[in-house]
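Would you kindly consider the sequence and fold I have copied below?
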Amino acid sequence: MPTIAYQLYCSRNFPPIDDTLAMLSQAGYKAVEGYGGLYGDLDALKAGLDRNGLSMPSGHFGLDMVEGDPARTLEVARTLGVQKVFIPWMAPDLRGTDLDSWRSIAQRLASALAPIRDEGFAVGWHNHDWDFADLGGTTPMDLIVESGLDLELDLGWVTRAGLDPVETLRRFSGRVRAVHVKDIAPQGENAEEDGWADVGHGTQTWPAIKAELDAQGIDHFVIEHDNPSDHARFARRSLEAVQAW
């Protein structure tokens, strides 16, 4: 059975987290994906997950934590049951500007995640659109994969980068450990939600994407919307769409 999770970052504007976990459980979710802002009180978060019958098979961890405090990263992952650790972001001033600087950054990411991988966790990078920049025949994403890291491929940001999700999945075949299932609103719509849409209610070609996911054996789907105006509506409608696959 596939894992269908909800990225808790979607609900950052709808506190408290306990209410969000209850809402997700009632909507039918069995799994979530964590992010750095939730990792303060681990015992309370773990209790909330358990109380609502939710697991957390993957989590987003900032480079500052992974690189600066790998012991804390491991503590968080073990306490919450995280099996896949993904770095999701790099501030603009830390990003590369050319091939050589991005090659150094890719190695930095790989080195930061090495102690986590050595403890038996899957590790990788979660993309946006800027990491597909053309560096003269290659991209930061290519360099990150060449450094030995796997990917959590955000299909929404792939499309925002002007790329085809199916072709991009094939480009990184064998290296994708999970995907962010994210939809794009038709042009000019959902401006108040930054142009994103509930999964299955936008322009992504889900039948073709799902066929490629199946062909590669990718079965870890993380539902996400960067700025839903109603997170309960988004959670419910998106889960219904993915379950219909």
Summary: The chain has ten helices and ten strands.
